[in-house]
Amino acid sequence: MRLDKFLKVSRIIKRRTVANDVCSLGRVTVNGREAKPSVKLKVGDVVSIVFGNGAVTFRVLKLSETVRKEEATELYELIEDEQ
Fold first, then answer.
1. Predicted confidence (pLDDT) per residue in 36-74, tens digit
2. CA distances from 33 to 28, 46, 51, 76 (A)
3. How many other C-beta atoms can be found within 10 angstroms of the C-beta atom of residue 61?
4. CB atoms < 10 A from the CB of 58, how many?
5. Which has the least CB within 10 A, 19, 46, 74, 83?
C-alpha cells in the first residue's frame, strides 16, 4: 500500500493530499530513510512523521484498503509521540 494512502486510511493524516504534501516536503521517514508518497509500505515498517514542533513514530501492524473509524488504530502501533 502506498504511504500517502496508508496515512489517510489509518487517519493519522485526515486527507490524502495533505499526506502527499507532508511526504513531498521530506517530513516522513520509513525505516530511517526519507520517504516519498509512493513508497510501498509493508507490515513491520517503522514510520516517523515530523509535525511542526513534534514528531510521531509508529509501526505498521496491518494493511487494509478501507477501515471504519473505530478500527483505524488497529492498523498501527504508536512507538513515540513527542509534542
1. 999 999 999 999 999 888 899 999 999 999 899 999 999
2. 8, 10, 17, 19
3. 13
4. 20
5. 83
| Bridge partners of residue 34, in order along the sequence | 29
Cα distance between residue 16 and residue 7, in whole Å: 7
CA Rg value for the chain: 11
Task: Report how far residue 5's alpha carbon sits from residue 39's, in angstroms, rounded to the nearest whole number.
Answer: 10
Annotate 16-55 with three-state secondary structure: HHHHHHHHHCCCEEECCEECCCCCECCCCCEEEEEECCEE
Sign of CA dihedral 24, 8, 40, 33: positive
Q: Which helix (H) or strand (E) holds 66?
A: none
DSSP code at position 77: E
Our measurement of the distance from residue 14's CA atom to the centroid of its chain's CA atoms, rounded to an integer in Å, reads 11
What kind and span of H or E run contains 82?
strand 76-82
